[in-house]
Write a structure and sequence with these properties.
Two copies of one chain form a homodimer.
Chain A: H1 4-16, H2 23-27, E1 30-32, E2 44-51, E3 56-62, E4 67-72, E5 84-97, E6 122-127, E7 131-134, E8 140-155, E9 164-165
Antiparallel strand pairs in A: 1-2, 2-3, 3-8, 4-8, 4-9, 5-6, 5-7, 5-8
């Protein structure tokens, strides 16, 4: 399902942000389709810079209007769930968390075919240069604007295979660890 | 000692890297002169993105040939010293650590007036897109190439005021915490 055309679109978006990446990094992009076979709508693309016992950093790309499905980072073996800071580097990203909110009107909608699996409703809009920190155990999903988005993630260590997705059909295969 | 001209040079270098920064961030740059009154030669400029109990991220600038003085991040209250990953985003940086090395020939020299306080000899050269992780308790210093450098730092939490510098004349005033 992963076409060369799809991969080129992702690499082009990294290029638009002017972030310099090595050939090895570009060859190791994790194109996550979450087992939904619908990657242009629900997917996430990422390069893992570092993930050690103390911290993690990634560079992520969302294609135009592409959505990373709702999930949570649970506590693991007595250790608090992953905490992460998203910093938008290029484009625009709409982030939704299950923190309390009074605002019901949202600027973008979740993917229609899976809309039941998107429940978090607090909206945070990040343009280039803006960032937001998601606390442990906060359910969240995020969707790019019409031009796509490049997002740096700074976080505590990643254990992506333990992420809990709201959509029970999701399988997260991990390539880059 | 900190002139408007100096500050403009730093901001121009951030600009060259195409990293998008908010006006608030640009107004809060930490121009560290380490109490040496010689900032063009020995100094470091940084923007703190996030520093919480679990991780830290900064965007650093070195002007052309500017050097960040040798220091180490000690263990603190039973917690391992800071571990950090430098990722060069723009320009070139020469990093020296006190890890074992057989190579004696180096591409750049430490500042002449303080050369006694630069002892780490393992050379790691980072161009844009390249990165290196410095383990806890490893003494290190780093110097930009002739065009300067923009360097992202991903790390465990920062406690800059506890850094131990080789040069006993150094005072590290912390602004951005």
């Amino acid at each position: 399902m992963l076409t060369q055309e799809y991969k080129m679109k992702v690499k082009d978006l990294y290029g638009k942000s002017n972030i310099v990446l090595t050939d090895t990094e570009l060859a190791s992009i994790d194109y996550a389709d979450f087992g939904l076979n619908n990657i242009e709508e629900e997917g996430l693309n990422l390069i893992l810079y570092v993930n050690n016992a103390r911290y993690c950093a990634k560079e992520m790309v969302l294609l135009p209007n592409q959505t990373c499905p709702e999930h949570v980072h649970p506590d693991l073996q007595g250790r608090e769930g992953k905490q992460e800071t998203f910093r938008c580097r290029w484009g625009k990203v709409y982030l939704y968390t299950d923190e309390p909110t009074d605002v019901e009107k949202h600027q973008v909608l979740p993917p229609q075919q899976s809309c039941d699996y998107y429940t978090a409703k607090k909206e945070i809009v990040l343009e280039a240069g803006e960032q937001y920190t998601i606390d442990p155990r906060i359910k969240h999903w995020f969707k790019a604007g019409p031009e796509g988005a490049v997002i740096s993630e700074f976080s505590s260590p990643s254990f992506d295979e333990y992420d809990v997705f709201t959509n029970p059909n999701i399988k997260r295969d991990i390539r880059d660890r």
